[in-house]
Design goal:
Number of domains: 1
Largest sheet: 2 strands, antiparallel
Distance between the termini: 9 Å
Number of helices: 22
Number of strands: 2
Low-confidence stretches: 1-11, 531-544
Helix content: over 70%
C-alpha cells in the first residue's frame, strides 16, 4: 500500500521530487538540443546506408557508456561511494581516485584492442565497400567510449554529493558539438554525406573530452584526488566483483537495443541474403530504427531515467531501514508511472505525425517509405515507455541493497527471449518486429522485478487510487488528443505540421496536469515542491 502522508514528509522524499525536477529539467534542455541534432543529422544522412552506418558507429561506444559508465560500474560505485562520503570522506576520495584510474586504464586497453580488430576487419573487407566504410566510422568514434565512461563516473560522484544539475547538463555539450559539425554541410556545394560523417564523429569524441573536463570542474572542493589509494582497495575489489551481474541486470535494455542494431546492420555488413532467403531488412533499416528509438528515448531520458537517477543515492542511504526504503521506492514507482503512462499514450497517438515533422519536410530527410516504417517502429517502442522507466528504478533498488543477482537472473531470461522474438518477428514486421520484441521483454522484466521486489518491501498496488487515477487520466488524455488529431487534418506546409504536433502535445499535457490538480494527485506536488517547508505545509489532505 502507498505510504501515508506522514511517512511521505521525509527529507529523502522531498529530495527525490526536487532532484527529479532538476535532472528532468536539464535533461529536457539536452533532449530538445538532441532533437535539433536529429533534425540536422537526419537531413545529412537520411534513411540511407550512410545513415545506418553512422547510427551503428554511434551506438557501439554508447553501449559501452551505458553498460560501464552509466550502468554496471556506476550502479556498483554509487552506493559504496555515497556511504563512504557520509562516513569517511578521505576513504571516499581514495576509492574515487582508484575507480577512475582503473576505469581509464581498462577502457583505454579495450579501445586499443577493438581498434586493432577493426583495422584488421577493414583490411579484410576490401571486397565490401559498405562494410569497410561502416567499420571505419566505428574506428573514428570508438575513442568516445573511454572518455564518456570516465565522465559518467564523475557524474555519479556529483549525484552522491547532491549535485544532479552538472551531469544532467553535460550531454548538452555532445549535442552542440554534433550540431556545430553538421550545419556547415548545408553550406558546402556538392557536400558528400559519406565524407561528412567523419568530422561529425570526431566532434562527438571531442564532446566526451569536454564532458570529462566539465565534470572535474563541477567536483572542485568536493573531492581530493590522491595517489594513496591502498585504503580503498578492498572496497574496489568488492565493487568489481559486483559488476558482472550488474552489467547484465541494468544493461538489459541497452543489450537488447544493441542486438537490434546488429540484426538491422546484417544487410550492410553481411549482405541481402540469409541462408538462401531474402533478408527482411535492408541497408536503411538501422537508420530507421535509430531515429525511431530517439523519439521514445526522449520522454524516457527526460523523466523515466531522471526518477531512477535521483532515487538511487537516496535508496542507498536508507537501504538498511526497510520502512524508509519501501517509502522511497514506492514514491519512485508512483512518479515513474505518473510520467511514463501518459508518455506511452501520447507517443502512440502523435508518433506518426512526429516522425513526419522531425524527419522530413524542409530539405532532405526520410523518404515516404522511411517515414511509414519509422512510425510503425515507434508504435512498438511506445507501448512500454512506462515499463522501461520502472525497470531502471527497480533494478537500482536491488543494487542499493547490494543484491545484484536477482536482476541478473531476470535479465538473462529477458535477453534470451528478446533474441528469439527478434529473429522471429522481423520476418513478419520488419524493423517494427525489433521494437515489439524490446517492448514485450521490458514489460515482462518489469513484472518479474516488481514481484521479486515485493518479497522484500511493500509495493504499490496496481489497484490503488493513485494508479487508477493515472490510468484514467492517461486514457482520457489519449482519447482527447486522438479526437483532435482526427478533426485537425495534417497540413501540407511543414511549419504548420510542426504547429499541429506541438499544439496537440501541449493540449494533452495541459489536460493531464489539470486532471492531476482536480483529483489532488500527490505526484504533481512532489515534482513541483521547491522545499521541505512548502511540501509539509500542503501535505496531509489528499490521501493515497
Amino acid at each position: 500500500m502507498p505510504p501515508n502522508s506522514e511517512q511521505q514528509n521525509t527529507p529523502e522524499g522531498h529530495g527525490l521530487g526536487r532532484n527529479t525536477r532538476t535532472v528532468a529539467g536539464l535533461t529536457l534542455v539536452s533532449r530538445v538540443l538532441g532533437m535539433m541534432r536529429d533534425l540536422v543529422t537526419v537531413r545529412v544522412f537520411g534513411d540511407t546506408a550512410v545513415g545506418s552506418a553512422f547510427a551503428a558507429a554511434f551506438a557501439i561506444p554508447n553501449m559501452f557508456r551505458r553498460l560501464f559508465g552509466e550502468g554496471a560500474l556506476s550502479a556498483a560505485f554509487i552506493p559504496e561511494y555515497t556511504r563512504m562520503s557520509d562516513d569517511d570522506p578521505a576513504k571516499a576520495d581514495a576509492f574515487a581516485s582508484l575507480t577512475i584510474g582503473l576505469l581509464a586504464m581498462v577502457t583505454g586497453v579495450i579501445t586499443i584492442v577493438i581498434e586493432l580488430a577493426l583495422l584488421l576487419a577493414v583490411v579484410m573487407s576490401a571486397d565490401n565497400p559498405d562494410r569497410a566504410y561502416s567499420l571505419k566510422l566505428v574506428m573514428v568514434m570508438l575513442p568516445f567510449m573511454p572518455m564518456i565512461c570516465v565522465a559518467a563516473i564523475l557524474g555519479g560522484m556529483l549525484q552522491s554529493h547532491g549535485r544532479f544539475g552538472p551531469w544532467a547538463a553535460a550531454p548538452i555539450l555532445l549535442n552542440i558539438c554534433i550540431i556545430g559539425a553538421s550545419v556547415p554541410f548545408f553550406f558546402v556545394e556538392n557536400a558528400d554525406a559519406a565524407s561528412w560523417a567523419y568530422p561529425i564523429g570526431i566532434a562527438a569524441v571531442i564532446s566526451a573530452l569536454l564532458q570529462v573536463l566539465w565534470s572535474v570542474w563541477a567536483l572542485r572542493g568536493r573531492v581530493k584526488w590522491t595517489r594513496g589509494v591502498s585504503s580503498a582497495k578492498s572496497e574496489a575489489w568488492l565493487m568489481l566483483g559486483r559488476m558482472v551481474p550488474v552489467i547484465i541486470g541494468l544493461g538489459t535494455l541497452q543489450l537488447n537495443t544493441f542486438v537490434d542494431t546488429l540484426i538491422a546492420m546484417y544487410p550492410n555488413w553481411i549482405g541481402p541474403a540469409f541462408f538462401g532467403h531474402d533478408y527482411p531488412l535492408d541497408e536503411s533499416s538501422n537508420a530507421i530504427l535509430f531515429y525511431a528509438q530517439r523519439l521514445y528515448q526522449f520522454p524516457l531520458g527526460v523523466f523515466g531515467i531522471a526518477v531512477a537517477t535521483a532515487a538511487f543515492p537516496a535508496l542507498s542511504r536508507v537501504a538498511g531501514d526497510k520502512e524508509r526504503f519501501s517509502e522511497m521506492l514506492n514514491r519512485g514507482v508512483r512518479l515513474s508511472l505518473y510520467i511514463g503512462l501518459p508518455a506511452s499514450v501520447g507517443l502512440l497517438v502523435v508518433g506518426g505525425p512526429l516522425v513526419r515533422v522531425l524527419y522530413s519536410g524542409f530539405g532532405d530527410g526520410f523518404s515516404e517509405s522511411g517515414i511509414l516504417r519509422a512510425s510503425t517502429v515507434l508504435v512498438g517502442y511506445s507501448v512500454a515507455v512506462w515499463a522501461y522507466s520502472l525497470n531502471q528504478l527497480y533494478t537500482r533498488a536491488f543494487y542499493a541493497q547490494n543484491d545484484t543477482r536477482t536482476p541478473m537472473r531476470i535479465a538473462l531470461v529477458m535477453v534470451g527471449i528478446n533474441i528469439s522474438l527478434n529473429i522471429a518477428l522481423i520476418w513478419w514486421f520488419r524493423e517494427a518486429g525489433l521494437a515489439w520484441s524490446t517492448a514485450i521483454c521490458a514489460i515482462l522484466q518489469m513484472i518479474f522485478l516488481a514481484r521479486a521486489s515485493g518479497r522484500k518491501v511493500s509495493g504499490v498496488s496496481i489497484l490503488s487510487r493513485p494508479v487508477r487515477l493515472m490510468l484514467a487520466g492517461s486514457g482520457l488524455m489519449g482519447l482527447g488528443i486522438f479526437g483532435i488529431a482526427q478533426i485537425w487534418e495534417m497540413p501540407t506546409q511543414w511549419s504548420m505540421q510542426l504547429v499541429r504536433v506541438l499544439a496537440i502535445c501541449a493540449i494533452g499535457a495541459a489536460f493531464y496536469v489539470i486532471w492531476s490538480i482536480l483529483w489532488k494527485m500527490e505526484e504533481l506536488r512532489w515534482i513541483g515542491a521547491r522545499s521541505t517547508e512548502r511540501t509539509e505545509a500542503s501535505s496531509g489532505n489528499d490521501g493515497a
